[in-house]
């Protein structure tokens, strides 16, 4: 009897969860495969700029000449910086040529790291945390506020090319109101303060100051390994 | 102590020793169906029993010790086994007769260690180890059957099945799926995952490989195969975590002549055969172990048929020839076996149209005509796909008619058939792995013999062997130096004035491979005498334990034809011929044939040869007959009939035997064994099936050729890999491939 009640209750709970609108899950800023667009296809010429060429040599010089491929991540980073924060497929091909590997080996790396943006992003790429603790603390509302204020969808760039919104793991501590203020500040060209936006917190410390670990931590019982 | 313990004692008598010696165990007795899972350590001890039944190595695994000092001993489930140093735990287990479940590990690919299915317990190791990636160490105590190992496998299996669509009923891999088999053997009976599964976009890899990417378990075997064996760096592992998927990132087809092999190595149904999709279930198929005839390699295959139809072709293991791969042409030409077939004897009427007749009438017409022709005007040409028996009979028959103008297409005029070393791949296909320097002369192995090319690539990858190539610009999937296009480069190398000469001279096992296209050249004697002079200068090229002077043949029939002495008597036999007997020969140039000549076409497909034919005699294809073929290295093998012949078609040798009787020159062979005893008197090596008969070293006996090499550059022998003979030209799949995959 009890068991049946319990299982019924479980079913109800599940049902309740199902009702939540399923936001579609996206893991990074782009799909794991490439779709040709006018500004992003293998035919668009792409090269390291003259200013960056010495940097390419400098990066390559860190690795033995038969392990050039180790330079893939710094070179991708350099290419992304050169190209306004994102990596078109021809930039990846250019990197592949520099380190003398097949392009697919570079694509593998670029798709692995979510900080390599393989689709166009805004000048300011705003990333909202999607982890469980942040969800509980209202990260979805923050995202909604951002999307509503900017009038874009996730992974879309605003018309002025300034902003795009994506998802990532936790960075900041903000409120829906505060993000809109930050966006406005960025629009005006101001630089909002880095780190937590909660005035009561210092860096990643808790609001209202530390509550634990106030003094010097106690050493473990036998620090002196010889003595024990 | 109570009834429960008594019962469990009775049930697990093998572990009773532990029960009574371990008092703690009595206290912790829990009431579950598999108590071992709760006390793995105790049960593990119980597993080791001193009296061990004998075990045999998995799949006949053999060990060979290159150096007796490198032998180590490990214990697998208590069995001591001796293995060479450097073997992995998984290999040690298979020597000990324990088959470890696996997905990502493959003998011929590098080790990835990413599926974790092969977890075993190793004594003193804190957690289960992935046996495929762990080198075996002396005295290691490996346990494959303990509760810890079982639980680990069950857990891995549950994770693998979490995102797997479980669509076996509509999956072509069903019945031969590693995932299916291993989840039956090692998995749990249910999973705990109730969320939605991931979805993955299917990739388009071309007309041969069908993808259902949701079934992929990310073992990366296909990625490793493509980059290591096939040499096309197209596939990769994209993304990470649960979003990980196999793909090419940018839309790209898999343009490799070996791409079909990913179907075999994919342990699940993610990569399956597109032409075979939803055609048959593998347990309905009858397997016939046969050999392939679409090139001169003689790859070992299994023909899977259902009723009278060939449903698919898959490779068979043969370490010396094709290892466990086959080319796409071999694998997918099978639909050509049923299209455009000739099923009835036919005679061309006065109106130029063919009319089906009975065998009796057709043979009578041929017999009548052949008697009215002067013997020197009779010509016989054997096709690329002919077996040794039929070529023997064709030669005997025409000899009896007084003509000696019989040859096999592709062998050219006045080819020297006396010295076998002059037309065989003397180093042997497997032997090429020992070579450290290759010189390819007028041959593009990638399209002429894909499996030989795979060997060369394997060698180049393993030992960084140098490859020089003389011939028209061509596609290679390994590093090579393009030295020139014509024979004068070869002469320069022979004279020592070329930079490659020193590379060749310093090589320990140099291998020179000459393409069979040479046979068609006017200056072939001159080229061979250049090669001979190279052998004379470089004693490493030919010595008792190594023969590096090779000819790579193009067609399955060529080697046997030369062994049987099918060489034309006169150089321009076709120009003066009045009677031409084409035995499956579709690629002979009949332009110069006199208008009034009578042409008999005996063959299986309505291909090129039919256009000029007056009489058609339908014959059987390789999947329908028993026949001996000799491959390019001189190994004779035989085909085995897998399906019945179509319509009124007959085996080639029987047709000629019947024709000889109607013509009044009866050949005395009534069974295939009769034909074979005739072959024994001409070329006994053809009857030593599955054995390579190396040629004797006699190159230096040949006289120097007075002629000079010509300036003519080497030509391309195979310009479309997918369509080279009657069967592949009839195949729709091959037509699709050449439309989509060949580079224009
Ligand atoms: S497609 Fe097949 S072979 Fe390739 S990674 Fe997936 S399961 Fe492995
Ligand atoms: S077989 Fe060992 S990890 Fe896959
Ligand atoms: S039956 Fe195993 S993946 Fe289809």
UniProtKB/TrEMBL annotation, chain A:
<comment type="similarity">
    <text>Belongs to the complex I 24 kDa subunit family.</text>
</comment>
<feature type="region of interest" description="Disordered">
    <location>
        <begin position="188"/>
        <end position="228"/>
    </location>
</feature>
<dbReference type="GO" id="GO:0046872">
    <property type="term" value="F:metal ion binding"/>
</dbReference>
<keyword id="KW-0408">Iron</keyword>
<dbReference type="InterPro" id="IPR041921">
    <property type="entry name" value="NuoE_N"/>
</dbReference>
<protein>
    <submittedName>
        <fullName>Thioredoxin-like 2Fe-2S ferredoxin</fullName>
    </submittedName>
</protein>
<dbReference type="GO" id="GO:0051537">
    <property type="term" value="F:2 iron, 2 sulfur cluster binding"/>
</dbReference>
<dbReference type="InterPro" id="IPR036249">
    <property type="entry name" value="Thioredoxin-like_sf"/>
</dbReference>
<dbReference type="GO" id="GO:0003954">
    <property type="term" value="F:NADH dehydrogenase activity"/>
</dbReference>
<dbReference type="GO" id="GO:0006120">
    <property type="term" value="P:mitochondrial electron transport, NADH to ubiquinone"/>
</dbReference>
<dbReference type="Pfam" id="PF01257">
    <property type="entry name" value="2Fe-2S_thioredx"/>
</dbReference>
<keyword id="KW-0411">Iron-sulfur</keyword>
<dbReference type="GO" id="GO:0005739">
    <property type="term" value="C:mitochondrion"/>
</dbReference>
<dbReference type="InterPro" id="IPR002023">
    <property type="entry name" value="NuoE-like"/>
</dbReference>
<dbReference type="InterPro" id="IPR042128">
    <property type="entry name" value="NuoE_dom"/>
</dbReference>
<keyword id="KW-0479">Metal-binding</keyword>
<keyword id="KW-0001">2Fe-2S</keyword>
From TrEMBL, chain B:
<feature type="domain" description="2Fe-2S ferredoxin-type">
    <location>
        <begin position="70"/>
        <end position="148"/>
    </location>
</feature>
<keyword id="KW-0408">Iron</keyword>
<comment type="similarity">
    <text>Belongs to the complex I 75 kDa subunit family.</text>
</comment>
<dbReference type="InterPro" id="IPR006656">
    <property type="entry name" value="Mopterin_OxRdtase"/>
</dbReference>
<keyword id="KW-0520">NAD</keyword>
<keyword id="KW-0472">Membrane</keyword>
<keyword id="KW-0999">Mitochondrion inner membrane</keyword>
<dbReference type="Pfam" id="PF13510">
    <property type="entry name" value="Fer2_4"/>
</dbReference>
<dbReference type="InterPro" id="IPR054351">
    <property type="entry name" value="NADH_UbQ_OxRdtase_ferredoxin"/>
</dbReference>
<dbReference type="InterPro" id="IPR010228">
    <property type="entry name" value="NADH_UbQ_OxRdtase_Gsu"/>
</dbReference>
<dbReference type="InterPro" id="IPR001041">
    <property type="entry name" value="2Fe-2S_ferredoxin-type"/>
</dbReference>
<dbReference type="GO" id="GO:0042773">
    <property type="term" value="P:ATP synthesis coupled electron transport"/>
</dbReference>
<keyword id="KW-0479">Metal-binding</keyword>
<dbReference type="Pfam" id="PF22117">
    <property type="entry name" value="Fer4_Nqo3"/>
</dbReference>
<dbReference type="Pfam" id="PF00384">
    <property type="entry name" value="Molybdopterin"/>
</dbReference>
<dbReference type="GO" id="GO:0008137">
    <property type="term" value="F:NADH dehydrogenase (ubiquinone) activity"/>
</dbReference>
<dbReference type="GO" id="GO:0051537">
    <property type="term" value="F:2 iron, 2 sulfur cluster binding"/>
</dbReference>
<keyword id="KW-0679">Respiratory chain</keyword>
<dbReference type="InterPro" id="IPR000283">
    <property type="entry name" value="NADH_UbQ_OxRdtase_75kDa_su_CS"/>
</dbReference>
<keyword id="KW-0001">2Fe-2S</keyword>
<dbReference type="GO" id="GO:0016651">
    <property type="term" value="F:oxidoreductase activity, acting on NAD(P)H"/>
</dbReference>
<dbReference type="Pfam" id="PF22151">
    <property type="entry name" value="Fer4_NDSU1"/>
</dbReference>
């Amino acid at each position: 009897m009890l068991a049946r009640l319990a299982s019924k209750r479980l079913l109800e709970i599940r049902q309740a969860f199902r009702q939540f609108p399923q936001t579609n899950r996206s893991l990074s800023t782009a799909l794991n495969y490439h779709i040709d667009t006018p500004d992003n296809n293998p035919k668009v010429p792409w090269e390291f700029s003259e200013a960056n060429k010495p940097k390419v040599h400098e990066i390559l010089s860190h690795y033995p000449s038969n392990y050039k491929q180790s330079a893939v991540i710094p070179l991708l980073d350099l290419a992304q910086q050169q190209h306004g924060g994102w990596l078109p497929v021809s930039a990846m091909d250019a990197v592949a040529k520099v380190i003398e590997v097949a392009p697919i080996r570079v694509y593998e790396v670029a798709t692995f790291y979510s900080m390599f943006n393989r689709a166009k992003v805004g000048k300011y790429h705003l990333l909202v945390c999607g982890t469980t603790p942040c969800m509980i603390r209202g990260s979805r509302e923050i995202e909604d506020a951002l999307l509503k204020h900017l009038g874009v969808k996730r992974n879309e760039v605003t018309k002025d090319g300034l902003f795009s919104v994506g998802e990532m793991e936790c960075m900041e501590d903000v409120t829906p109101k505060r993000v809109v203020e930050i966006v406005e500040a960025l629009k005006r060209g101001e630089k909002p303060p880095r780190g937590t936006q909660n005035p009561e917190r210092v860096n990643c410390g808790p609001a209202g100051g530390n509550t634990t670990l106030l003094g010097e931590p106690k050493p473990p019982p036998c620090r002196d390994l010889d003595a024990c | 102590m109570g009834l429960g313990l008594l019962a469990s004692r009775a049930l697990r008598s093998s572990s009773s020793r532990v029960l009574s010696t371990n008092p703690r165990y009595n206290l912790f007795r829990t009431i579950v169906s598999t108590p071992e899972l709760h006390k793995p350590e105790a049960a593990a001890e119980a597993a080791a029993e001193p009296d061990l039944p004998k075990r045999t190595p998995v799949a006949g695994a053999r060990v060979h010790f290159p150096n007796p000092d490198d032998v180590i001993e490990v214990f697998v489930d208590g069995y001591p086994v001796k293995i060479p140093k450097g073997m992995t735990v998984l290999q040690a287990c298979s020597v000990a007769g324990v088959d470890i479940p696996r997905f990502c590990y493959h003998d011929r690919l590098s080790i990835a260690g990413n599926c974790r299915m092969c977890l075993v317990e190793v004594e003193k190791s804190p957690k289960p180890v992935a046996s495929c990636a762990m080198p075996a160490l002396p005295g290691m105590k490996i346990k494959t059957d303990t509760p810890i190992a079982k639980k680990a496998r069950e857990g891995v299996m549950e994770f693998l099945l979490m995102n797997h669509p479980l669509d076996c009923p509509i999956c072509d891999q069903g019945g031969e799926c590693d995932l299916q088999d291993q989840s039956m053997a090692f998995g749990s009976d249910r999973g705990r995952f109730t969320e939605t599964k991931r979805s993955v976009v299917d990739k388009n890899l071309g007309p041969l490989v069908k993808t259902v990417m949701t079934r992929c378990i990310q073992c990366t075997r296909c990625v490793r195969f493509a980059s290591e064996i096939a040499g096309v760096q197209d596939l990769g592992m994209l993304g990470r975590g649960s979003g990980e998927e196999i793909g090419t990132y940018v839309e790209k087809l898999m343009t490799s002549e070996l791409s079909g092999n990913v179907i075999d190595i994919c342990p699940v149904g993610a990569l399956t055969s597109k032409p075979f999709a939803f055609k048959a279930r593998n347990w309905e198929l009858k397997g016939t172990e046969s050999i392939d005839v679409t090139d001169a390699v003689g790859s070992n295959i299994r023909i899977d048929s259902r009723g009278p139809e060939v449903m698919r072709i898959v490779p068979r293991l043969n370490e010396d020839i094709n290892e466990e791969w086959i080319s796409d042409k071999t694998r997918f030409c099978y639909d050509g076996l049923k299209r455009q077939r000739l099923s009835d004897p036919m005679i061309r009427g006065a109106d130029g149209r063919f009319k089906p007749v009975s065998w009796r009438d057709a043979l009578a017409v041929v017999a009548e005509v052949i008697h009215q022709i002067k013997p020197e005007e009779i010509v016989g040409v054997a096709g690329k796909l002919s077996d040794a028996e039929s070529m023997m009979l064709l030669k005997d028959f025409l000899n009896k008619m007084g003509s000696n103008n019989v040859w096999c297409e592709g062998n050219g005029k006045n080819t020297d058939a006396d010295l076998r070393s002059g037309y065989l791949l003397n180093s042997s296909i497997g032997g090429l792995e020992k070579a450290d320097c290759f010189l390819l002369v007028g041959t593009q192995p990638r399209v002429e013999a894909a499996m030989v090319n795979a060997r060369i690539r394997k060698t180049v990858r393993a030992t960084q062997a140098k490859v020089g190539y003389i011939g028209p610009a061509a596609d290679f999937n390994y590093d090579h130096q393009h030295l020139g296009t014509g024979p004068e480069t070869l002469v320069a190398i022979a004279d020592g004035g070329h930079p490659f000469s020193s590379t060749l001279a310093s090589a320990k096992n140099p291998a020179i491979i000459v393409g069979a296209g040479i046979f068609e050249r006017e200056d072939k004697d001159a080229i061979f005498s250049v090669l001979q002079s190279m052998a004379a200068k470089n004693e490493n090229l030919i010595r008792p334990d190594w023969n590096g002077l090779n000819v790579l043949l193009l067609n399955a029939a060529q080697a046997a034809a030369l062994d049987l002495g099918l060489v034309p008597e006169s150089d321009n036999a076709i120009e003066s011929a009045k009677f031409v007997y084409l035995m499956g020969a579709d690629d002979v140039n009949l332009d110069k044939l006199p208008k009034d000549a009578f042409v008999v076409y005996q063959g299986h497909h309505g291909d090129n040869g039919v256009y000029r034919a007056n009489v058609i005699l339908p014959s059987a294809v390789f999947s329908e007959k028993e026949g001996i073929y000799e491959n390019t290295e001189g190994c004779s093998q035989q085909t085995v009939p897998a399906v019945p012949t179509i319509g009124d078609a007959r085996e080639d040798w029987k047709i000629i035997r019947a024709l000889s009787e109607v013509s009044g020159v009866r050949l005395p062979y009534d069974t295939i064994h009769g034909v074979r005893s005739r072959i024994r008197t001409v070329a006994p090596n053809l009857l030593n099936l599955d054995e390579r008969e190396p040629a004797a070293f006699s190159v230096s006996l040949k006289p120097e050729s007075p002629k000079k090499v010509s300036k003519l550059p080497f030509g391309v022998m195979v310009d479309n890999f997918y369509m080279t003979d009657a069967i592949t030209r009839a195949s729709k799949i091959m037509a699709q491939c050449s439309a989509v995959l060949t580079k224009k």
